[in-house]
Specification:
By secondary structure, this protein is of the alpha+beta class. The chain has one domain. The protein contains 1 helix and 5 strands, in the order βββββα. The chain has a 3-stranded antiparallel beta sheet, with no helix packed on it. A two-stranded antiparallel sheet has the order 3-4. The N and C termini lie far apart (32 Å).
């Protein structure tokens, strides 16, 4: 099953991370390829409802997001080395 991990604000203004089915009502995407051939997508959410069981619970969402972004940055830094070997 494919899921989108989405950051959003709840009704109290707190940042939450939730798992959303890409086929859910109100989720629309446009897939395309970028210059290097990788697949990308623009995802638009319109009045998507998220249930309590779709929320991912962390002690600190901000800390979790910071760790994910740091990991993502390091992966992106290493990505060009794969194209250099071709």
């Amino acid at each position: 099953m494919n899921l989108l991990l989405v950051t959003a604000r709840d009704e109290n203004g707190e940042i939450v991370i939730c798992a959303v089915d890409p086929d859910a009502d109100g989720v629309h995407s446009r897939e395309y390829r970028v210059v290097d051939g990788q697949r990308m997508a623009d995802v638009i959410f319109t009045d998507v409802t998220v249930s309590e069981d779709q929320l991912l619970v962390y002690d600190s969402v901000e800390r979790a997001l910071d760790e994910v972004m740091t990991y993502g940055d390091s992966v992106l830094c290493g990505e060009p080395s794969g194209s250099w070997k071709r």
